[in-house]
Amino acid sequence: MSGTESPVLAVLCGDKHPPDMEPIEQVAAVRYTDADGLADALRDADALFVYDFLSTAVPGAWHAANRLRWLHIASAGVDPVMFPALRESDVVLTNSRGVFDNSIAEYVLGQILAFAKDFARSIKLQRERTWRHRESERIEGRSVLVVGTGPIGRSIARLLRAVGMHVAGAGRTARDGDPDFGTVHASARLNEHLPEFDYVVAVAPLTEQTKGMFDAAAFAAMKPGARFVNVGRGELVVTGDLVEALRAERIAGAALDVFDTEPLPPDNPLWTMENVHISPHMSGDFVGWRNALVEVFADNFRRWRAGQPLVNVVDKGLGYVPSGG
Amino acid sequence: MSGTESPVLAVLCGDKHPPDMEPIEQVAAVRYTDADGLADALRDADALFVYDFLSTAVPGAWHAANRLRWLHIASAGVDPVMFPALRESDVVLTNSRGVFDNSIAEYVLGQILAFAKDFARSIKLQRERTWRHRESERIEGRSVLVVGTGPIGRSIARLLRAVGMHVAGAGRTARDGDPDFGTVHASARLNEHLPEFDYVVAVAPLTEQTKGMFDAAAFAAMKPGARFVNVGRGELVVTGDLVEALRAERIAGAALDVFDTEPLPPDNPLWTMENVHISPHMSGDFVGWRNALVEVFADNFRRWRAGQPLVNVVDKGLGYVPSGG
Q1: Average pLDDT, chain A
Q2: CATH says B101-278 is which class?
Q3: Distance of alpha carbon A221 from alpha carbon A196, whole angstroms
Q4: Residues of B with Cβ-Cβ distance to A129 under 8 angstroms
Q5: Phi-psi region for residue A322, left (φ > 0), alpha (ψ -120 to 50) or beta?
Q6: What is the pLDDT of residues B306-317, one digit of tens each?
Q7: B280/A133 CB distance under 8 A
Q8: Facing A137 at nearest CB: one of B126, B283, B286
Q9: Which CATH superfamily is domain B8-99+287-305 in?
Q10: Chain B nearest-CA residue for A132
Q11: Using alpha carbons only, how large is chain B's radius of gyration in Å?
Q12: In terms of CA atoms, which chain B residue is nearest residue A277?
């Protein structure tokens, strides 16, 4: 676009507008909208900032996007906007890769330590004012498979290596000598490798290839004492199969930050299972994350205004930002 | 002693004998005893292995120790056997320094992550089947003061540095350029330095100098948002002052693995306080710890039989094994 005219920017948000937008408001006509007003806001808009990244409203309003050229989403996963009409369009899609990496890595390390040191039981015993000594596990020397080799998976791998765990990755292409993972196994042959690991961390993007990859066969392949951590997407897992594997003590525990239905419905059996740690899709959301998300958008907005290449451009065929891209 | 005669070894234990003692039983007359039989077992004994390291029975039976030359305790802290008659005797005292270091470091890191990621509240909300998103804290870049610069403190410092925290130490002598801590502040001026730190970890040995060092003045000096972690000894803390500081929200939380009375009595207010994580003196006790403790003793026993210098010799004036000693 030319740098002289004032572009129209639609911002999909709830009641709460994104912070720190003043610099952008000075150079663009900004239309803040909720889901109901999205179609109106998209008409003649040049760009769309999906700040409410859990919204599923974009496909239904897409028909009104008559001159959109850029869509930025305030999340790492782009699955909510990977509908056919966007895929097939010329609209450039960018995401917020990088913002959540280290925060999610800390969350994963925390959950691994919570399992190893039996924190949930300590809290339960504290509630009962009961002093009961137990032996706990070391994490040094234990093995972890990180399924997903994007930047979040890499940050997890680096942190877990730093505390002495043995880490491998699983991704599209098997390889050795990866700087963060060492060995990367092929996700297509995941179940052959699962028996080797004490912990399995799911952080793959949600695509047609990864949907439901953690099913009964995968949980059956894991070590009986294995713990499963999901910080990717709920739909990577066949939830019923996970519940069954936990009930049968086929695996020893699960820490889940994401679910196929969010919020997790009150009648879901996961809520009340022993050895399940539930958190409400918050692993990446450190204090200041909303400002950081707007900063990533604002940086790309400056590039877009200046006609420079955008960062974090999603490969709409793959469903994520390719490594090195 | 001569290597030809068979020494008499008293072992203070409860109902459960230490594991892996067969090699020692082949070369020594081993007398396993509980507290009631300790005086009888000590008569004519050459060495005492205090396997039940929480026992307070040794001072009361000490009068019978007519030819004891060596006392080994299966713990890092030697305060249960630091009574005047032992101090003044020629009996060599050794401890189990090293066994618990890395396990306790992992526990401390886990507690710090539990605070930062609000795990206790997640567990509470899970019990109520309530989905409530919160923002969480990063640990990278946060500051920690480790009070106690022995091997456990050093292991804690190394692990917390590995995950990107800013670490300093507090010990007897102020200094810079320490390989693990960088800066070490003087414990005598602790309260001047406490305001700088997000987390304060107590792991000092219990001595006349350190007893009650965490009192009302210390908690008043800490940051209002600070968290306190005690993996040293309960008596390092004036418990009533800690309770008061937590009640007044003078500090934000405490993770306590040790208490001035153990087991912690059911009516102690700490059990029911928000933001207090209680565990039953287990932070170092990984699966296999009992075997590891006996291994440390058996190694020293071999040295003792061979007339070689013992390792982990406690300076009975200081109350711990001096660094580099």
Answers
A1: 96
A2: alpha beta
A3: 9
A4: 266, 271-272
A5: beta
A6: 999 999 999 999
A7: yes
A8: B286
A9: NAD(P)-binding Rossmann-like Domain (3.40.50.720)
A10: B280
A11: 21
A12: B123
